[in-house]
Amino acid sequence: MTEMLAFPKDFWWGSAWSAEQAEGRGETGKAETVWEHWFKTEPNRFYEGIGPEITTDHINRYKEDIQLMKETGHNSFRISISWARMFPNGGVGEKNPKAIAFYRDLLTEMNESGIKPFANLYHFDMPFALQEQGGWESREVVESYVTFATTCFEEFGDLVYHWFTFNEPLGPILGSYLEDFHYPNIVDFKRGAQAGFNTILAHAKAIESFKKLNLTSKIGVILNLSPTYPRSQNEYDREAAEIADAFYTRSFLDPMVKGTFPKRLVEILKEYDQMPTYEENDLKIIAENTSQILGLNYYEPRRVKARLTEINKRGPFLPEWFFELHNMPGKKMNVYRGWEIYERGIYDLCVDIRDNYGNIEAFISENGMGVANEERFLNEEGQIIDDYRINYIKDHLAYVHKAIQDGCNINGYHLWTFIDCWSWINSYKNRYGLVSLDLKTQKRTIKKSGEFYKEMSLNNGFEYETSKLV
Ligand code: BG6
Fold first, then answer.
1. Which of 94, 345, 389, 399 has the most crowded Cβ, counting Cβ within 10 A?
2. Region 160-187: what's the mean pLDDT?
């Protein structure tokens, strides 16, 4: 049966991106970031050798882009504020008046266009000079981050609707310390645990500073959360799933939302001598300064089974010592990105937050489908006909709707992304946008999904065949 799925009044319809992926370097002055440095030294690591110099050139085209936000039905949008742009002397020292002028103008125009600005303070873009000092492993870097965050609250507090300390803080830990997809490509769990702990501390300290300013906005964090499913109900599979979940889901969710650390994870890290160092007062700061709002990034589930093989104890300690990923037969795939598509996972995630995290105010802060060679789908008028993306959005949103009906406190949906943007080492391989980008000319064209998005936002919902829901 086809039904109109109506969303709550004032639901946030929008999308998200980040400074390093969309702005381009521009002329304001900006410290070198780890991405710019890594691209300079190892361009071969980036798809087709395209780096972060220009990306989607938003810094020069933001006025045109805000018009496109309106034309694609946005009532809200997440940007990130570049630390390197705000503090061009290596992320510390004097703040940058040109950066402040840019962000103030951007945020003002968004507000005047009826688009609520959501601002994130860190999206993988460490100033290189601070990485040289140890990055998140260094407590001085934590203090520099708090200074940057406080400066943003003071300069933009009147213009930002909601704040986020970090986007996916787990990402740089996996990429930089375990899996070799972020600079500085270290493989060392214990150092990663230290960087992770300091990130959690930085989040809490930024919230502590935010609360002193008595702004009307809220502050929280955006986490990439994959529900963990065991291969079977076999006790060993379930144990493997429980441990994987502790490493990848509870590790940041518990301290950043509840102010506590997951017991199972701490036990394992102690047993294997992987605990970070900290000061006693850090735990108090973390406990007292938790998120007021939570962004949920959902792309794929995590499927796990008990290990089949012995661990190589002469290799580096890794979470995979306790489980293996399960390649579930018959799963639906986004073959371009190599991620499973499992729409019901978004429902299970929302229910977890409802039941285990006090039903904190939350929203879907990222979800989306990256597709390679999208020019295959151009029609004669030069528009990309991306019905697959429209279906992807509807199929996920139908489960978000169900979650809301079942009492989950979900107030919005932000797609990844608005205009095609730069995807780190994948560069412009997979396109995620509601608006396509011609990389040679920077011409923007609304895709079919962009038109659909506008209609959905205007209707505050869409027609859906609800018998598809399981
Ligand atoms: C999210 C990140 O994990 O996924 C984005 O917050 C990223 O920065 C997006 O671009 C899509 O992933 P990818 O690797 O295809 O760019």
1. 389
2. 98
| CB distance 168 to ligand 1 below 6 Å | yes
| Residue pLDDT, tens place only, 358-413 | 999 999 999 999 999 999 999 999 999 999 999 999 999 999 999 999 999 999 99
* 0.85 exceeded by pTM: yes
Question: Residue ranges of the domains in the chain?
Answer: 2-468
Q: For residue 422, report the distance from its CA to the centre of ligand 1, in Å.
A: 9
- What pLDDT shows up at residue 396? 98
Mutate to test the pocket of ligand 1, among 35, 164, 416, 421 (most ligand atoms within 8 A of CB): 416
Cα 402 to chain centroid, rounded:
23
pLDDT at res. 1: 84
297 CA from centroid of ligand 1 (Å): 10
Overall average pLDDT of the 409-428 stretch: 98
Name the band, by pLDDT with cuts 50, 70 and 90, for residue 302: very high
Average pLDDT over residues 6-19: 99
Structure tokens at 197: 């702990």
Which region, left, alpha or beta, applies to residue 12 given φ > 0 means left and ψ of -120 to 50 means alpha?
Answer: beta
Q: Domain 2-468: which topology?
A: TIM Barrel (3.20.20)
Q: What is residue 395's predicted lDDT score, i.e. its pLDDT?
A: 98
CB of 365 sitting under 6 A from ligand 1: no
Task: Give pLDDT tens digits for 113-162.
Answer: 999 999 999 999 999 999 999 999 999 999 999 999 999 999 999 999 99
